[in-house]
Amino acid sequence: MFEDIPVEVSPMYEGERIRAANMFVELAGPKSIGAELVQVDDSLTEEKFEVIGSELSDMNQGDIIPFGLKIAIKGEKLEQELEGVIERRTHDLCNYVQGFMHLNQRDQIWCRVSTEAKDAGFKLVHLAKAVGTLFKEEFPIIETIAVTILTKKEEVEEFVEGAKSTYSIRDARSRELSDEDVDVFYGCLMCQSFAPSHMCVVTPDRTALCGAINWFDCRASAKMDPDGAIFEIEKGEVIDEEKGEYINVNNMISQKTQGETERVFLHSVFEYPHTSCGCFEAVAFYIPELDGIGIVDRDFNGETPLGIPFSSMAGQCSGGKQVEGFTGLSLEYMRSPKFLQADGAYNRVVWLPQNIKESLKEYIPKDLYDKIPTDADATKVKEIKTYLNDHNHPILERIANQNQTDEEDEEDSVSTTSQEDTTPEYAPVMTSPEISVPASGGVRIVFKNAKIYAEKVIIKKKK
Amino acid sequence: MIIAVSGKGGTGKTLVSSLLVKVLSKTNKDILIIDADPDSNIPDTLGINVEKSVGDVRENLKKDINTGNISVGTNKWDILDYNIMTSIVETKEFDLLVMGRPEGSGCYCAVNNMLRKIIENISSNYDVIIIDTEAGLEHLSRRTTQNVDTMLVVSDPSARGILTASRIGKLAEELEINFDNLYLILNRIKEGEEDNITQKAAKTGLDVIGLIHENEIVSEYDFEGKPLIDLPNDSEPVQTIENIVKKLLE
User: Fold this and answer.
1) Counting C-beta atoms within 10 Å of the first and last residue's C-beta, which end of chain B has fewer, N or C?
2) A104:B79 CB<8 A
3) Distance between CA B123 and CA B32 in Å, rounded?
4) How many angstroms separate the CA atoms of A426 and A430, rounded?
5) Which residues of chain B fall short of a pLDDT of 50?
6) CB nearest to B109's CB, from A103, A170, A190
7) Nearest-5° Cα angle at A200, A268 to B84
8) Do B77 and A170 touch (CB under 8 A)?
9) Helix (H) or strand (E) run with residue A435 in it
10) Mean pLDDT by 10 residues, chain A (463 residues)
């Protein structure tokens, strides 16, 4: 297939680096410009591989040359949406070519041609041909392909500009990618050496809580290293879309944590919040007095409304422990449209550090932005309450509703409790070998062999 | 071939590493030096200016992540790979990768995992890798030197230097890290002390592969901050390392 190419073309050359000492020329990279772009072009009529500008034979040892790699594809089943996915393969396929190094993607590529390849008679047009052929082999839906290599400065400049605007259109589309759009989530166990009973679940709407890896990174990792710490979780059946609970995720987490955690809600701090290794960039914590959620990040040194600093809070909810009312999260997750959606998202947030709030300005609903206090406004629960009242934070409505329903329910339940009044001794309304109660102030309350007696039991339907 | 140079701080690790580079670069092999000692000055002893370390790349990535500066459609493997490549100083004779300061606060599991893989991949492209390890034993217990085939432990005549050397040998054994070659290099030995120190060194259980005397030229280079890689070819330290390399390449 590659008989007329003077170097070998094979996956075994992936990962090949060319030292400056062994290179003939450098293309694009930090000292020049360049880009690669795959685009669907329905006007394409025939296969074409060409170089516009100078060929390797016109260059001198050590030259650093602008480099554009323009790939046009046509096929009945090809859609624009696939361009990004196909383009991602450019890196791998270019690296199949012996004596050609390719790093990174988009307008951040960096390539080198080895002296050895040049001496063997290798030309850029061979690269175009090899890449074109490999693409067709890899993606049979490509029926026609044209690969054009640009090496003239002005032309590359123009090409890079055009490519950049295409990337940003694609990025806008990717940012819209949500949990519903994919069939696969990822599990990450990179931190299990610290937290053996923790597994991170990474979805398009929920970046890993260390912030370092998103769904796209996981997809790349799982492919690069299928037996590695990052693996696919078939999304499967959803149990509760709002809370973000999935059967397969529950099964996987149960298996990978040796049964320590059996259920997880991806988008809530209540009941079964996502566990944490200790890596999180921030912690979301429930403030019972306000029925609201506070957020604190790693860089915040002061005390939180719970009266403890980040470090103590981090200690409480890390190590894979599932502690209701606390969840570790990445700052990127706070930009997600699903950010704690089951709990009321930003409507439920009643406190966060000033610098975090500023960095999230575009993502916090406009009418809410000034209603959420930061450490610059208040840190004690009482002061926060005053601020919330003064600024008419939506949590007030929630508190008001809560009180109202409590009263209504109380009336309903009067009849049942009055009967019990006749019995001299109460029977426990609940017994349990162990109950843990989320609490503030740096403590966790665990009742062992608890029997709970109550004058009144209120059972409410969830709204 | 992966050669690691270890030992107590200040015993002459960097002298040995620099001279290994000097001698090996005459062999026409592709050589990578990894400076894994945050306190080391190997770039100076090689006469090279380093602008960016792996630590800087890691911190910059964390910063970009926090501020949401990374395009959604790109992946961090590729970004790190590219930035590590920019941090490598390339010369005609050898390439140099400086690990830099250890991480700050926050979690680096994921980033470090990616970095390890990337550096492994980069390393596989070289014929010879020389690692100037951090002082002490950490590199063994953290297994950053477990793929090393030749471990050269450097010691000066001090009791503490010798003790660290013997601990390195014992720890490697305990951790079942099997180096193909594990040798001791004695440095800064006074004339006439050779027998005495060799006897002490025998107790470490390590074979002595070379001995460097106290050397005026080295002191002078150190004093003036001149790159040690420029030490004269006929000086004793260079001669000793040449003999060591000959033995290792046999």
Assistant:
1) C
2) yes
3) 7
4) 11
5) none
6) A190
7) 130
8) no
9) strand A430-437
10) 92 92 96 96 95 96 97 90 83 95 94 97 97 93 96 97 90 81 90 81 89 81 78 92 93 90 93 86 90 89 86 82 90 90 93 90 91 91 91 87 65 46 52 62 65 69 65
Length of chain B: 250
Does residue A163 belong to the interface with chain B, where contact is any CB pair within 8 Å? no
Helices (H), chain B: 13-24, 42-45, 54-66, 76-87, 109-123, 138-141, 159-174, 194-202, 216-224, 236-249
Are B106 and A91 in contact (CB < 8 Å)? no
CA distance A101 to A121: 17
- Calpha distance B113→A396 (Å, rounded): 45
CA dist list (Å): A270 to A83, A106, A223, A435, A438: 40, 41, 34, 15, 10
Q: How far apart are CA B135 and CA B132, in angstroms?
A: 9
Q: Which of B28, B74, B92, B111 has the most A C-beta neighbours within 10 Å, making it the best mutation to test the interface with A? A: B74
Domains of chain A with bracketed CATH: 11-175 (3.30.1650.10), 179-347 (3.40.970.20)
A131 touches chain B (CB under 8 A): no
pTM confidence score: 0.73
Q: Do A298 and B105 touch (CB under 8 A)?
A: yes
User: What single string gives the DSSP state of each residue in A119-157?
Assistant: HTT--HHHHHHHHHHHHHHH-TT--EEEEEEE--HHHHH
Q: Do the Cβ atoms of A294 and A380 come closer than 8 Å?
A: no
Backbone phi and psi for residue A201, each to the nearest 5 degrees, phi listed first: -110, 125
Among residues B46, B39, B13, B21, the alpha carbon closest in space to that of B156 is found at: B13
Asked if residue A353 lies in contact with residue A375, where contact means CB atoms within 8 angstroms, the answer is yes
Instruction: Answer yes or no: CATH 3.30.230.80 is held by domain B2-249.
Output: no
Q: CA separation (Å) from A232 to A226, A274, B115?
A: 9, 18, 22
Instruction: Give the residue among A157, A198, A200 at the shortest CA–CA distance from A67.
Output: A157
Answer whether A453 touches B (CB < 8 Å).
no
Is the CB of A280 less than 8 angstroms away from the CB of B77?
A: no
Residue of B nearest to A278 (CA): B107
d(CA A108, CA B118): 17
Tokens of A95: 């690296």
Domain boundaries of chain B, sorted by first residue: 2-249
Q: Is A188 annotated as a binding residue?
A: yes
The whole-number pLDDT of residue A423 equals 43
